[in-house]
């Protein structure tokens, strides 16, 4: 054995303990750590782009990384990171994720690990948490991008089935043109159209309801009536990224009765609101969708990367993703045979962090995260609306605040970007830029389990401090 490998084998307990110490240092200081480190700290230092011949050993390598790059790590796991839709990691989920790396299971139905059984149980518990019926099967994938990919891929197979075509065998060209209808599709779904050979040009944007990001069902019906016979996928939003708008799924289901289409619901973070009786009605009807996306590394607060794809069409899913190899189990139609249900042949044990979190905190713990984040988002929105320098671009529907600078007489985009850059340098709160109905805006998305009212007040102080000086 190589001497460094032998050294690290002998020092394994010390290596794990040293890693724990570094992690503890990071987590104990996360509330004081800048949400956006300086740009120069985000750069690689000289020599670290080169491969060493002999190596340092694990403890020296850990220290090398921490001493050089600790300042370049953001507090994205902390309570005031409101950028994108980024959750943290609850203690139970983090502990489980460490174990995932230590036990290093390939979570297939391979008859040599309990991983597949725990994944199936986690999916079932998540269905209970979110009020989804037993008719759905589910599996873990890397994120909403891959969950949307899987849902649309199964939909593509369903469209072929309606026309006597096996797209998985014959290719998408045998199906011919497909139309994909949506009002506010996430960029990951558009990427999936490219990867699946359907093409980005297949996407047709349907009008929104006035003053909303939700699809206008009347406009959708007009388009469906004018395109009868064209294979159709409808991508519904259960929580848009700017305003957490929900499409009226019950109206979409009524349209599906008259104009058959595949209904995919992108509920990457909005779907988790179903665990709260206060907000579950916004997802009414999603239990009849064909496929659903839910992220775990957003509002469920497990570490990156983790999402769940749900579908009511297990046989079609296996037609798309089945894997034939002499050394692997043949395809069999069962909900835990993940080798034949997801794009990956090799799969990390992603289910364990969520299984552990559900075991640790239960339904009430998940509900608390959702309801507390919504309450705090409403507080932030109320305070921003009352501030002299800001105005809301849309009402606070759930856990995202979409706002803009007030009374900007110059270049609104440049002013917005300067404000965000100053906010980043101040390091207290992280927000991200967006556009809402063509207007340059700013987003604050609250999904972290640690966020408290004091974090909202600290964020507001920083936002007000970073406002541009009056002309």
From TrEMBL:
Entry cofactors: pyridoxal 5'-phosphate
Source domain of life: Bacteria
Alphabetized InterPro entries for the sequence: Aromatic_deC (IPR010977), PyrdxlP-dep_de-COase (IPR002129), PyrdxlP-dep_Trfase (IPR015424), PyrdxlP-dep_Trfase_major (IPR015421), PyrdxlP-dep_Trfase_small (IPR015422)
Protein family per UniProt: Belongs to the group II decarboxylase family.
Gene Ontology molecular function: transaminase activity
Keywords on record: Aminotransferase, Decarboxylase, Lyase, Pyridoxal phosphate, Transferase
Phylogenetic classification of the source organism: Bacteria, Pseudomonadati, Pseudomonadota, Gammaproteobacteria, Enterobacterales
Protein's name in the database: Aspartate aminotransferase family protein
Organism per entry: Serratia liquefaciens
């Amino acid at each position: 054995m190589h001497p460094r490998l032998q050294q690290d084998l002998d020092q394994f307990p010390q290596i794990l303990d040293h890693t724990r110490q570094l992690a503890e240092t990071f987590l104990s200081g996360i509330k004081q750590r800048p949400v956006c480190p300086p740009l120069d700290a985000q750069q690689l230092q000289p020599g670290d782009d080169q491969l060493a011949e002999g190596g340092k050993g694990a403890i020296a390598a850990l220290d090398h990384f921490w001493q050089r790059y600790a300042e370049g790590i953001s507090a994205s796991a902390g309570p005031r990171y409101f950028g994108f839709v980024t959750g943290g990691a609850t203690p139970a989920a983090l502990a489980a994720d460490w174990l995932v790396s230590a036990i290093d299971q390939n979570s297939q139905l391979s008859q040599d690990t309990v991983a597949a059984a725990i994944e199936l149980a986690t999916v079932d518990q998540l269905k209970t948490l979110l009020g989804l019926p037993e008719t759905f099967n589910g599996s873990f994938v890397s994120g909403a991008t891959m969950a949307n990919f899987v849902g649309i891929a199964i939909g593509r197979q369903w469209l072929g089935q309606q026309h006597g075509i096996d797209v998985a065998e014959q290719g998408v060209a045998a199906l011919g043109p497909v139309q994909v209808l949506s009002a506010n599709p996430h960029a990951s779904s558009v990427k999936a159209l490219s990867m699946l050979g359907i093409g980005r040009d297949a996407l047709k944007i349907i009008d929104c309801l006035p003053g909303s990001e939700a699809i206008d069902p009347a406009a959708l019906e007009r388009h469906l009536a004018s395109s009868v016979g064209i294979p159709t996928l409808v991508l519904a939003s259960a929580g848009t990224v700017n305003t957490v708008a929900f499409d009226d799924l019950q109206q979409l289901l009524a349209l599906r009765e008259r104009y058959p289409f595949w209904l995919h619901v992108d509920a990457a973070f909005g779907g988790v609101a179903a665990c709260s009786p206060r907000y579950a009605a916004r997802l009414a009807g999603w239990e009849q969708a064909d496929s659903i996306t839910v992220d775990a590394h957003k509002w469920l607060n497990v570490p990156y990367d983790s999402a769940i794809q749900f579908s009511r069409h297990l046989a079609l899913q296996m037609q798309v993703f089945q894997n034939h190899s002499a050394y692997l189990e043949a395809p069999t139609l069962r909900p835990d045979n993940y080798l034949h249900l997801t794009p990956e042949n090799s799969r990390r044990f992603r289910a364990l962090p969520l299984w552990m979190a559900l075991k640790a905190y239960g339904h009430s713990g998940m509900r608390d995260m959702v309801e507390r984040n919504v309450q705090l988002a409403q507080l932030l929105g109320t305070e921003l609306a009352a501030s002299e320098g800001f105005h809301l671009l849309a009402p606070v529907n759930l856990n995202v605040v979409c706002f803009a600078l007030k009374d900007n007489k110059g270049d609104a985009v440049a002013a917005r970007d300067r404000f965000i850059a100053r906010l980043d340098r101040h390091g207290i709160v992280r927000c991200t830029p967006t556009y809402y109905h063509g207007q340059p805006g700013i987003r604050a998305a609250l999904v972290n389990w640690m966020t408290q009212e004091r974090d909202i007040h600290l964020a507001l102080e920083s936002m007000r401090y970073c406002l541009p000086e009056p002309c």
